[in-house]
Specification:
Distance between the termini: 37 Å
Largest sheet: 9 strands, mixed
Strand content: 25-35%
CATH class of the largest domain: Alpha Beta
Shape: globular
CATH architecture of the largest domain: 2-Layer Sandwich
Helix content: 10-25%
Radius of gyration: 20 Å
Number of domains: 2
Oligomer: single chain
CATH superfamily of the largest domain: Pseudouridine synthase I, catalytic domain, C-terminal subdomain
CATH topology of the largest domain: Alpha-Beta Plaits
């Protein structure tokens, strides 16, 4: 006989600088490990969350969802009070933002229909951006980078940007946005959205675009990279601390 359970989605945000990524792993401090432990204390039962995806060590998240189950009868009557208790247990660089009861078959990873990332660049030394943006020397050609980024929307197979030796069933991703924009204070942000992403994909794309922005390659080089399906054809991955997971969209959660 199947035990009845109630499933919840939890929305969190975190500064990833002190963590070896989201996903729990042996002998490493991770966001998931601390969240599961804090949730277990608050709800008084062991908790094992399932996240919407992985983030590499040092990557930040403004919005990340995970789901977890509570045994029947252990429903959460006051989500705001529960979040207050949870945040009092979590370290200052992890915040629980929202708790949502969802259908029992809802899945934080498989049900997401869109994910969005930002990659942040700055050009002058700024102590307040340390660990949260990557300082580069020299202004790249943003028009060339945006031309190359636009080509990405015409493709679906992104094996060339996947971390080597990754066990995935498919390299197919549907990109809906890929563009650079200046901020009013002179920083540069790359915005990218897709239904799914491969491991290390965004950092490899940014590295490839910067090669083009530095005039090392023409914008059309992006076609050669994607067609190669070879990680060695793409640019060097940029540092993790400039990358943010900013949005995860589900059909049953209002944006």
């Amino acid at each position: 006989m199947k035990t009845l359970q109630t499933r919840y989605f939890i929305e969190i945000a975190f500064d990833g600088g002190a963590y070896h990524g989201w996903q729990a792993q042996p002998n490493a401090r991770t966001v998931q490990e601390l969240l599961d432990a804090a949730l277990g204390v608050v709800v008084r039962q062991p908790i094992a969350t399932t996240g919407c995806g992985r983030t590499d060590a040092g990557v930040h998240a403004r919005q990340l969802y995970a789901h977890f189950d509570l045994a029947a009868g252990n429903d959460i009557p006051d989500p705001q009070r529960m979040l207050h208790s949870l945040n009092s247990l979590l370290p200052p660089d992890i915040a629980a933002k929202r708790l949502i009861a969802v259908p029992s078959d809802a899945h934080a990873r498989f049900d997401a229909v869109k994910r969005s990332y930002e990659y942040h660049l700055h050009f002058d030394k700024n102590p307040f951006l340390q660990g949260r943006s990557w300082q580069v020397h020299g202004i790249p050609d943003v028009d060339a980078m945006n031309k190359a980024a636009g080509y990405l929307l015409d493709y679906r197979d992104f094996a060339c940007f996947s971390k080597s030796n990754t066990q995935v069933a498919t390299f197919t991703c549907k990109l809906t946005r890929a563009e650079w924009q200046w901020t009013p204070d002179g920083r540069l942000i790359f915005y990218i959205s897709a239904d799914r992403f491969l491991r290390n994909m965004v950092r490899a794309i940014v590295g490839t675009l910067l090669e083009i922005g530095r005039k090392e390659k023409p914008p059309e080089h992006m076609h050669t990279v994607v067609a190669s399906r070879n990680r060695s054809a793409a640019g060097t991955s940029v540092p993790a601390h400039g990358l943010y997971l900013t949005e995860v969209v589900y059909p049953y959660i209002p944006e």
